[in-house]
Amino acid sequence: MINNLKVRSKMFILVLVMLLSILFIALFNARQSDKTYQDSIRAMRETLYGDYDTQIKNQVNCVISLIQSIYDKQEKGIYTEQEAKQLATDLVREMRYGEEGYFWIDTYEGDNIVLLGSETEGTNRMNAEDVNGYKMIQDIIKNGQNKDGGFTEYYFPKEGETEASPKRAYSKAFEPYKWVIGTGNYTDDLEELAIEKTAAQKANYLKTQKIVFIIVTITLIVLAFLAIIILNSITKPLKSSIKLLKLMSEGDYTITIPESYLNRKDDFGDLGMAIKLMKDKTQSLVGHVKDDCDELTEIAATINTNVSQLNSQIEEISATTEELAASMQETAATSDELSASSEEINQSVEIIANQTKDGAKKADEISQRANDTQISVEKAKEKTSSMQEKIKADLLAALEQANVVNQIYELSESIMQITDQTNLLALNASIEAARAGEAGKGFAVVANEIGHLAEESKNTVIKIQNVTEEVTSAVTNLSDNSSHLIEFVSTDINDDYNTFMEVAYAYKEDAAYISQLVNDFNHASQELSGTIHTMMTSIQEISHAANEGAEGTTNIAGRCVDSLAQSNKILEETTHSKENSENLKKEISYFKIS
To answer: Localized where (predicted)?
Structure first.
């Protein structure tokens, strides 16, 4: 239960117990002093009463000795019994001691013989009573008949007074006359004498009691004053500490701890320093948390903005990669068409080669039939002209279709630009992911994967460009050779046919030359067929690469969609983090630090 009391109450109880203890000790000492004083009065009374008893006993014994001497004289015959008794009563009646001491004599039967010569003499007072109904004469006579006499206490009025006062009497019998001689004195006089004799002691006792009372009073006042000072020195700083702690518990850390409190050298000074240290530490901690919350809120807002921008860029990349996939698919389709055209060109070249073989045979026949060559030459001229036009048209169509390779190069350049842009976006995404820290690790992996795919696409495009350049070079060579061939057919052969017709008879000598020329043309056609076959292989590789590129860009688009989903998840997490930061900031705002 005492643990539930306040410190002020505990101190008050402690001080109250101390004061009550001192007061109890003082009262106990006063009681003991009063007991000692009463014991001394009692001892004084006993001494006075003892002296008084001895005195009245001696006085009575003196009277008995006097009567005994008279009785002895009576025995000797000097006095008669009557004379002796008369002398004895006269002497006793006149005898005094002290101021008011006198004697009386009663017979065993209660008849009074001597009593100051009063009217009581000669009367029987055996049944006399005091104011309390006490028959004191009977006891006086009875006690007096004891061997050594006896004492009797009763109440009896003083001379000239009506009010009874306490009196103590001593009586002793004188056996020869059967008298009981007695004397006594009022005990209130003894009390007054005892008080008078103990007056100095009483004065000393009262003085001592007064001094003790003053000392105790001063002690109690001083202790109470010191207790109040000590209590205030404890409760005031304790209340201040409680007030400070309550304010701090309410979140107010703007309070200032008084220097007088901190400069104390006692436990409360240590408590004040501890509270100040706790206040400063908590204030610093709350300040840092507030700053971190603000910074976290800004970072979350920045991440939200960046992730939103990244989502837009990923959507653009996804759309671009889809367009790129469509373009790559178109490129693959065009490559297939180019491959089919190359196949047709190859077939035409094979026809040309076969025809050159036939021309060689005919040249041999011309050589053998020189005389009949004119008609054959005319027919050959017509056939050659017709073939020239056909070959020219086929070559021009093939060359026109071969220009598709340039379009492939241009498309590869576009793909190269797209891959460069993808690399740039992947780099930006990696930078933003690094800024995001732990939350951007997943996005960083996706950005690295996009960069890796863009790098692979770039390498594939470079390979496509290299193959395209080779195909372009081959097509250029084919175009040059075809141009030369067409030019050759359109000019030289026609002129030769015209000349041959003019010099038909001289053609026989030139037949061998024509045969060799046709064989060379056949060889060139075979080389052209090989070149076209190589071009067809390159075009097929281009088509395959385009298909792979389309598949890769499709995968990129799919991964962009996955990245977009991850980015949206990151956006949700950052939004949640921002909300948590706002909530934490709201909670921290409970504390006042400035």
So the answer is: Cell membrane
Separation of alpha carbons 539 and 482, rounded Å: 20
Residues with Cβ within 8 Å of residue 335, at least 6 apart in sequence: 404, 408, 539, 540, 542, 543, 546
Contact 561/318 with Cβ under 8 angstroms?
yes
Structure tokens at 414: 């576009």
pTM of the model: 0.35
| Sequence-separated contacts (24+) of 49-57 with Cβ below 8 Å | 49/168, 49/187, 49/190, 52/168, 52/185, 52/190, 53/151, 53/168, 53/170, 55/97, 56/101, 56/168, 56/169, 56/170, 56/183, 56/184, 56/185, 57/149, 57/170, 57/172
Q: What is the pLDDT of residues 484-541, one digit of tens each?
A: 766 765 676 667 767 767 766 665 676 677 667 667 766 766 776 777 678 778 777 7
End-to-end Cα, the chain, rounded Å = 41
Mapping DSSP to helix (H, G, I), strand (E, B) and coil, where does residue 469 land?
helix
Q: Catalogue all structural domains in the chain, each as residue range(s) with its CATH number.
A: 49-207 (3.30.450.20), 340-555 (1.10.287)
Instruction: Go through the chain and tell me how many residues it has.
Output: 594
Q: pLDDT by residue (tens digit) across 320-364?
A: 777 766 776 777 677 677 677 767 767 766 786 676 677 667 767
Q: Which tokens sit at 147?
A: 């061997």
SS3 assignment, position 449: helix
